[in-house]
Amino acid sequence: KGTTPIAYALSKAEEDFPPCDNCRNIIILITDGIEECDGDPCAVSRSLQKNGIALKPFVIGIGRDFSKDFECVGTYYDASSEVEFSKALKVVISQVLNSTTAQVNLLDDYNRPTETNVNMSFFDNVSGKLMHNYIHTFNANGVPDTLFLDPLLKYDIVVHTIPPVEKKNVSITPGKHTTIAMQCGQGDLKLIVGNNSKTVKDMKCIIRRSGRMNTLNIQTFGTTERYRTGFYDLEILSTPRVYVDSVEITQSHTTKIELPLPGIVVLRKSVKGFGSIYLDKGSELEHVYNLQENELQETLILQPGNYRVVYRSRFASQTVYTIEKKFTVQSGITTNVKLFSN
């Protein structure tokens, strides 16, 4: 009459698997008893899976039903007779050797599988290991292409839309075609600057979900990007910055945000000094830019509007020598501002 050190046996199985990036390490545990040496086979199994050493074990119980004791260890099969044991072993071998087909339906806002051309990442749900990257594709028949996935794993799937869509703990049914549906409705956002974008080449815009601060994307003006349907806040990195809140992206529609063409301001100083530019909002001044102390001429690209520049020579010893000038920036026009001390 022997003992059953199942936890110990499982832990030692790690030594049977040499390092290999493209291997599937499988453990088939055949037992006629439960743990008898105060070990925790459930914890050992979780550790093996989490560390990517082995996939979820198969357990074949002989003699009586041990399912309650081993369901936390792995996929359990009862083999109360020789015939049942043979059937269980065939099922296990079939699952180990055969991949299973699946397809991912990326649904639009009308629950139609029309979204495509976006990367999908498949992670092992237990270990967190990245298993596959596939760019979603329609086949020649216009339906989502077939994927071949390991049915022994449960997957966490990330569809890399902006923002991404996640689906956790996805099971693949062995021997059957599995369809995985994910809500990914998208529309386009096009950013435009006036009729001459050369003046503001590579101007950027920060895209955020409405009411949230985390940055989803930084989009360049003159480009079109796809986003999931919903509302977004835009922070345009112009001078001064422009904020456009609650921009709605709708299914299969292009939303256009057009910024007026900025103007050019040429600032000339007679001597070096200190100063700043402010956007004049009437009862409020919004700081826009600090003048460079050691430069006698500066060229700035500013949004249309009314401004004030406040300046004082570095050699002036009294506050009254502060110079303040108002100027207006017009779209596409160059404005010259002279800051000469008396």
Task: Offer a few descriptive terms.
342 residues; mainly beta; Rossmann fold; Immunoglobulin-like
State mean pLDDT (0 to 100 scale): 87
Number of helices: 4
- For the largest sheet, list the strands in their spatial order: 6-5-8-9
* Rg, nearest Å: 33 Å
Q: Flag low-confidence runs.
A: none
**CATH topology grouping of the largest domain:** Rossmann fold
CATH class of the largest domain reads Alpha Beta
At a glance:
The protein has 342 residues and is mainly β. The protein has helices at residues 6-13, 41-50, 67-70, 82-97, and strands at residues 28-31, 58-62, 75-79, 100-107, 119-124, 130-135, 147-149, 154-159, 165-171, 178-183, 186-193, 204-209, 215-220, 224-228, 230-236, 242-249, 254-259, 263-269, 273-280, 285-290, 297-302, 305-313, 323-329, 334-339.
